[in-house]
Specification:
Blueprint (H helix, E strand, L loop, with lengths): L9 E2 L8 E4 L2 E4 L10 H5 L2 E9 L2 E2 L2 H14 L8 H15 L5 E8 L18 E8 L1 E2 L3 H4 L1 E5 L20 H12 L4 E5 L5 E4 L3 E6 L2 E4 L9 H13 L3 E3 L5 H4 L3 E6 L3 E8 L2 E2 L7 H17 L2
Parallel strand pairs: 9-10, 9-16, 13-14
Antiparallel strand pairs: 1-8, 2-3, 2-7, 4-5, 4-6, 6-7, 10-11, 12-13, 12-15, 15-16, 16-17
Length: 305
């Protein structure tokens, strides 16, 4: 568990120290779980992943996660070697093996498999896909609901779909890590990233929203993550709170926003209270952000009742 301020920070549990990790059908203690140094994911970042949450014994939005997973696998011509149902069962088996039924975050990682030699060519394979599932007890850090995150706009841009489509949950995320390192060096918690036109796109690991005059704004999504939580929040706002827009907007309009927040599977909704030194609103998580979070978590509980 990290003490750093981050949309990926969490309140953990000592039981995580002894979790059993699913590795190609076997359950291995986390300290001994490993893959080959010739694995395509290690060699090249050649693989895809999903972050899934277990709530009250049920996997939240699992059909949407499987849609994204298998669409990603098809996009890179990778055979997972398992059906959707088998993948879901493996996730549930991993949770059951560890005795987890709630407040559980699951990281499903699938690579092309072990290579005969460390090169780029996907034809040099010595095995089928590598499937790893890590389940841990993680609660979103409650303190962020009161303090919010500070963002720094990175000089690293989100990639374009013709170069690298961020809507593909790939293991290759070096430019996003570079953006985060830059933000940390600037004293911020997370990086805000623009597209090649200078429009606001995404954060380094989460989707970004602002609230202006009672309206919710987020990017159209062409240059940002295909966030499942993002879509749920957008839809819930439109149904229960007010007008919601997926639109292009420049960085300057984030500075004058009334409120801002980010979304992700782990944290749900995390307020943002400062961007590039500009205080957002009154510097505290705003009332509509709090209402959005309440609406979202009520929906989560209802969905997994």
């Amino acid at each position: 568990m990290t003490s750093a301020s981050s949309a990926q920070a969490y309140d953990g549990d000592p039981r995580n120290d002894d979790v059993l990790v699913y590795v190609n059908g076997d359950f291995v203690h986390r300290d001994k779980a490993s893959v080959s140094v010739f694995d395509a994911g290690f060699v090249l970042g050649d693989g895809i992943w999903e972050g899934v949450r277990l709530v009250n014994g049920k996997l939240l939005s699992i059909d949407l996660h499987m849609d994204r997973l298998f669409e990603g696998a098809k996009a890179i011509s990778m055979d997972i070697g398992m059906t959707r149902e088998e993948v879901v069962q493996a996730i549930m088996d991993t949770c059951a093996k560890n005795g987890f039924t709630d407040n559980t975050h699951i990281r499903l990682m699938i690579t092309r498999g072990r290579k005969t030699t460390p090169n780029q060519d996907p034809r040099f394979m010595a095995s089928s896909a590598t499937v790893v599932i890590v389940a841990e007890l993680k609660k979103p850090r409650a303190s962020f609901a009161e303090t919010g995150l500070s963002l720094f706009t990175s000089t690293y841009r989100c990639s374009t779909p013709d170069v690298f489509d961020l809507r593909l949950n790939s293991h290759s995320r070096l430019n996003l890590i570079q953006a985060l390192i830059q933000a940390i060096a600037a004293g911020a918690d997370e990086a805000l990233m623009l597209d090649q036109r200078g429009m606001v796109a995404s954060c380094n690991s989460t989707n970004f929203f602002i609230i202006r005059k009672g309206e919710l704004w987020t990017s159209p999504g062409l240059y940002s993550f295909n966030g499942i939580t993002r879509q749920h929040v957008f839809d819930l706002w439109g149904e229960k709170i007010g007008a919601a827009h997926m639109k292009d907007f420049p960085l300057a309009q984030t500075y004058s926003a009334d409120e801002a927040f980010v979304t992700g599977t782990l944290g749900g909704i995390t307020p943002v209270t400062k961007i590039d030194g500009h205080v957002i609103g009154d510097g505290k998580p705003g009332p509509l952000t709090k209402r959005t979070a309440q609406t979202y978590w009520d929906w989560v509980r209802e969905s997994c009742a």
